[in-house]
Specification:
By secondary structure, the protein is α+β, with helices and mostly antiparallel strands. The chain has 6 helices and 11 strands.
């Protein structure tokens, strides 16, 4: 099976600041590029706090209450309130009425796998870290991931778990550049595995996506690209074609 290698067109997400303003861009058609949004918890905190009780369901509110650190709770609320607001706007229903459910888990078959909109072809994905939340919406299966650039020792410890060619590529980077290269590769990997619906239930060593900043390998049936976010972070999106 041939793996496509292509120039990586870095996408820049729209930002959801203090609420939805203006007209939403149209959703892409089958195989088209996904709609990408960035939510910053510090800018969206007031909206999320004000809207959470009326927008989130009981399970989401319960998960938010379990966070011990305020920053983690703020990031969770920003991502999930923003997700429901955007889904509601795209589907033209109140955010709380968006019928979310889970697909069967890849590993055990229980209903805690990839989140989907019940009975609707709109696909979405959410990832958050360090106060930044990245969301993607598409007409086909889609995955998104955002990662903080780790310390060098983390990149060196986890890098060997990637595809052997990716691990070799990281090995050619100097100490200063290897953490960012690892974060870029890991974000691509997680975005793809989220899109598949397996998450890390599928070994990250199986699929080659590449570590180079200007090219990305696309497994058959998928397009994968980097997403422009803040310095100190890496992000990627994967969409089925």
């Amino acid at each position: 099976m041939t793996t496509r290698v292509m120039t990586s067109a870095t996408r820049r997400p729209m930002e959801l600041g203090d609420g939805l303003r203006g007209e939403l861009p149209p959703l892409p058609g089958q195989g088209g590029p996904p709609s990408l949004w960035l939510v910053r918890s510090d800018r969206f905190r007031a909206v999320a706090a004000r809207s959470a009780a009326s927008v989130l369901d009981a399970d989401e509110q319960g998960r938010a209450a379990e966070f011990r650190r305020d920053d983690d709770r703020d990031t969770y609320l920003a991502g999930h309130v923003g997700l429901r607001m955007l889904l509601g706007a795209y589907l033209e229903v109140p955010p709380r009425d968006v019928p979310l459910e889970r697909e069967p888990c890849f590993s055990c078959g229980q209903l805690h796998g990839r989140p989907v909109v019940r009975g609707n072809p709109l696909h979405f994905s959410l990832s958050h870290t360090g106060g930044l939340c990245l969301l993607a919406f598409a007409a086909t299966r889609v995955g998104v991931d955002i990662e903080a650039v780790p310390a060098l020792h983390v990149a060196d410890e986890v890098g060997p778990s990637l595809h052997p060619r990716e691990a070799a590529e990281l090995g050619t980077c100097d100490d200063a550049g290897r953490p960012a290269a690892f974060a870029r590769t890991w974000a691509r990997k997680e975005a793809y595995l989220k899109g598949l619906g397996t998450g890390l239930g599928r070994s990250p060593s199986l699929d080659y996506l590449g570590a180079a900043p200007d090219v990305v390998a696309g497994p058959p049936g998928w397009t994968i690209g980097d997403v422009a976010v803040d310095d100190g972070y890496a992000a990627a999106v994967a969409v089925a074609v």
